[in-house]
User: Which sequence fits this backbone?
């Protein structure tokens, strides 16, 4: 099978169409052949027209190779929309779910290789506190804690052990078994796909690691997990202190693993901006996404930065 990359159009009330256009214009012709957009043909056509983007679209209902690399291939999700950038939450949710399910079906049936999903407002997904990472993990019927979010840049990767979870609930999830399971997945992925055994830094949960008090998560869960991982010959250090690590010490590590989303994503995005991608490890296939949100405030302004989406395509094209 020829390498095929699916780009899921994502949230229709967003800058996604602008990013798709800007990304497409920068791709070489050899890469364009591999790209299929999962979206609504009429919707994308109207959005491009409103943005003033001159590009030809080809509507297809199933995967087929189209030799004309100047035309954007649209795997059509058959829904009706009126205003191209003001779509109701109900209609947007239906569109997003159909698009993700179609992409999952195509890669599961080996009709395509990889999925890139453009930004999606989590309100459009079926459950509270769930993101695309968790949704696709459920579609793949993964056992609990088998999916891992990895935010990747060529110089550093970070991974939050808990993802879209309220802060008040994080400590309930920090358990030795979960830590071990997820770090083993990260280690295996780096060995298999990046061809290197990673040096991993594991953060503590509390400020100053709770001074390693006996009743802290650091002493009860994190340090016991580290002992198990070291016995398994994982190259890991911790628990590290989050408030100073990202000054310079982060350079020692290939991956920094944190306990919750913003603990590692805030400093990472401050350093690398849009020069990173979001990879879901543990699925039955490779799924990546740009490392940013829907940016509704930028709709129509033509100021959205396509770098992260371009990096997603480049990363998969080199796989």
Assistant:
């Amino acid at each position: 099978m020829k390498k095929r990359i699916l780009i899921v159009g994502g949230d229709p009330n967003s800058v996604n169409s602008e990013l798709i256009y800007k990304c497409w214009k920068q791709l070489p012709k050899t890469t364009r052949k591999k790209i299929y957009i999962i979206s609504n043909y009429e919707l994308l056509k109207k959005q491009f027209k409103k943005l003033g983007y001159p590009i030809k679209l080809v509507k297809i209902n199933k995967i087929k190779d189209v030799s004309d690399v100047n035309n954007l291939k649209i795997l059509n999700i058959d829904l009706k929309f009126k205003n191209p950038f003001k779509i109701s939450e109900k209609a947007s949710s239906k569109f997003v779910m159909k698009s993700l399910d179609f992409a999952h079906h195509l890669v599961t049936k080996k009709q395509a290789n990889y999925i890139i999903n453009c930004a999606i407002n989590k309100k459009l997904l079926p459950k509270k506190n769930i993101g695309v990472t968790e949704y696709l993990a459920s579609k793949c019927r993964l056992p609990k804690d088998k999916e891992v979010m990895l935010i990747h840049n060529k110089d550093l990767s970070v991974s939050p052990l808990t993802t879209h979870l309220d802060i008040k609930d994080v400590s309930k999830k920090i358990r030795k078994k979960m830590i071990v399971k997820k770090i083993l997945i990260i280690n295996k992925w780096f060995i298999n796909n990046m061809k290197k055994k990673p040096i991993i830094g594991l953060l503590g949960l509390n400020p100053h690691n709770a001074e390693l008090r006996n009743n802290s998560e650091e002493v009860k869960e994190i340090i016991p997990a580290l002992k198990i991982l070291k016995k398994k010959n994982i190259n890991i250090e911790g628990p590290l202190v989050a408030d100073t690590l990202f000054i310079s010490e982060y350079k020692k590590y290939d991956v920094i693993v944190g306990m919750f989303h913003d603990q590692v994503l805030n400093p990472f995005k401050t350093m690398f901006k849009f020069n990173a991608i979001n990879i879901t490890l543990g699925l039955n296939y490779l799924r990546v996404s740009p490392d940013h949100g829907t940016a509704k405030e930028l709709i129509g302004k033509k100021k959205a930065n396509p770098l992260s989406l371009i990096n997603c395509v480049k990363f998969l094209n080199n796989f």
